[in-house]
Amino acid sequence: MTDRILIIEDDARLAAMVGEYLAESGFRVTAHETAADGLAALKREPFDALILDLMLPDRDGLAVCGEIRAASDIPILMLTARGEATDRVVGLELGADDYLPKPFNPRELLARLRAILRRRKGAGPANGLRFGRLEIDRGARVVRVDGEERALTSHQFDLLVALAEHAGRVLSREQLMDLLRGEALEAFDRSIDVHISRIRSAIEDDPKRPRRIITVRGAGYVFARSQDADGADR
Amino acid sequence: MRRLYLQLYLTVVASLIVFALAAGYLWRVLVHVAPPPQAAELAGEIAQGALPPPDAPREAQQAALDRLSAGGRVQIALYAPDGTRIAQVGPQLLGPGEARHRAALPWGGRRVWTLELPDGRWIAARLPRRERPPLAPLGLVATLGLLAIAVAVGAYPVVRRATRRLERLKSSVEALGAGDLAARVKVEGRDEVGALAASFNRSAERIEGLVTAHKTLLANASHELRSPLARIRMAVEMLRTEARPELRAGIERDIAELDALVDEILLASRLDAVPTLEPREDVDLLALAAEECARVDAALEGDQLMVRGNARLLRRMIRNLLENARRHGAGSAIEVALRKTADKVELRVCDRGPGVPEVERERIFEPFYRPGGAREREGGVGLGLALVRQIARRHGGEARCLARAGGGSCFEVLLPA
């Protein structure tokens, strides 16, 4: 069944392009330029997800988000200009499911939209980690890039989770071993570098020039906190 | 700090003390004024009655003077109308001819009184050292004391109130200066302090309005600039042309560059406007540097170390340094070193590019500075290095540009460990 998406975005040309792009991926998209029209449409018709711009001509997107969330649990993806880190927090506090700064990578928009739809339909509360286009679902033990599943062994998945849960910290091989203690340990020992290399093949765009799992010479590995177009804002 | 109210209050109290001392002194001096002229006339007649007539022999005059001197206790001398001395008990009191010019006032260190007799003779007398002139009567002292206490007690609240208002005004001014644009002060009184408070409030109102307008303008500008960027980004994705992939990659890079520039302008203005550094957290600087180095294929070596700061700003700082090295390093390898010294964390980003002439090593930290001879295509340094320095200073550190041995340049950031 096709998911119906409502876009409330004052930039009609952008909304039209997003609509066309999402339609190519099998969504049915309706766009409105004002909060009033969008809210009216939301009352009139059923939608599966909402893409909401932060700055609307008639109202503040955050207030609109709060109002919608008070009445419905429709997944909401907020679009805003990058730079105001607090907006992200406030947006999520007000009930938005995710947030994407403009200008965004359309593929990332698609991936995030699919993720919030999946989360709503799926098994209750999210147990996922998201880094740009990369999504780690700890509950389902699945890793996706651009919404597409990538194959990892169970050990590799554990290693990836250990790294990702400490994103932005350099972890030595010993620290990684400690973190994985209790898991099936024999698979690791000295072959940790080999496993890292396998994980890279699965999740890196260019495994030869890794951007997600980075080697720090003489120190260990670091899982990048800022990935893809996230920029310096995360 | 010397408190204003204390200064004012101590001035009042000091004035009171000076006033009391002056009053006491004048009391002592003026209360003992000369007796009225009638008293002198009467005393002259009595003295004449006690003395032999002017034509009596000198011995008789001396004998009478001896009697008058009360056994030598009073020094006394008798002068003829022409000033010649007739008789004397004790040392000489006045020079010849002085008597007629002396009024009945103290003379010299000790008091010499002169008195003209009705027959024209003069008497000069010095009283023995007598008790001090009487102190002011107790009632007057008590009244003065009470008055002083009343003024002191009464002045305190007045002075304190005036300066309390000034102190409140001061704390509001400081709050405004520290970035609390909503700081206002209650207007009390209709005097200068009240007027000052009112004009402070007007200024604060205006500043708040301007800053709010500035922020709104920036937020709107950011939004308006990003909307077309978002459309272009979207359009490039939808072109789906595989013919010229390098063109498409170029457009994507340009979009990212413009986006970063908008970001930097916003960040620079926010750093100017907001004095505090929030949020602060423990940042693994080696990990941060490793992430950023991976983006531009820079070589990194260093110690694992944590600094306390804003991860987002520190990331921006390292990214800008790397971006600068990439842009101006003429394609040479970028080397990043992270070291911990006794009290500092030292981050160095070095390249083997043409280097920076010594005269420009400070100026390149100016916003949008364009080095001499830079071609249009290369562009200026933009805001990148200015932000690097701003962020380093925000963390209590410093950023500078150094020459590199063997050619190229090194940018060094020192942060407190």
Q: What brief labels describe this structure?
A:
heterodimer; A: 234 residues; alpha/beta; 5-stranded parallel sheet; 4-stranded antiparallel sheet; 8 helices; B: 417 residues; alpha+beta; 5-stranded mixed sheet; 9 helices
What does this structure look like?
The complex is a heterodimer of chains A (234) and B (417). Chain A is 38% helix and 22% strand. Chain A is of the alpha/beta class and 234 residues long. Chain A has a five-stranded parallel beta sheet, sandwiched between helices. A four-stranded antiparallel beta sheet of chain A has the order 6-7-8-9, covered by helices on one side. Chain A has a three-stranded antiparallel beta sheet with strand order 10-12-11. In chain A, a hairpin with a 2-residue loop joins β8 (142-145) and β9. Chain A starts with a strand and ends in an 11-residue tail after the last strand. Chain B is an alpha+beta fold and 417 residues long. Chain B has nine helices and eleven strands. In chain B, strands 6-8-9-11-10 form a five-stranded mixed beta sheet. In chain B, strands 2-1-4-3 form a four-stranded antiparallel beta sheet. Chain B has a two-stranded antiparallel sheet with strand order 5-7. The longest helix of chain B has 48 residues, at 192-239. The radius of gyration of chain B is 48 Å and the shape is rod-shaped. Mean pLDDT of chain B is 81; it is low at 103-109. Classes of the chains: A alpha/beta (234), B alpha+beta (417). The A-B interface holds A 11, 13-14, 17-18, 20-21, 54-55, 80-85, 102-107, 168-170, 209-211, 214-219, 222, 224-226, 229, 231-234 and B 219-220, 222-223, 226-227, 229-235, 237-238, 255-256, 259-260, 262-263, 266-267, 283-284, 286-288, 290-291, 293-295, 297, 300-301, 304, 311-312, 315-316, 319.
Q: H/E order of the elements of chain A?
A: EHEHEHEHEHEEEEHEHHEE
What's the arrangement of strands in the largest beta sheet of chain B? Answer: 6-8-9-11-10
Largest interface: A-B, 42 and 42 residues
Mean of residue pLDDT of chain B? 81
Order of helices and strands of chain B: HHHEEEEHHHEHEEHEEHEE
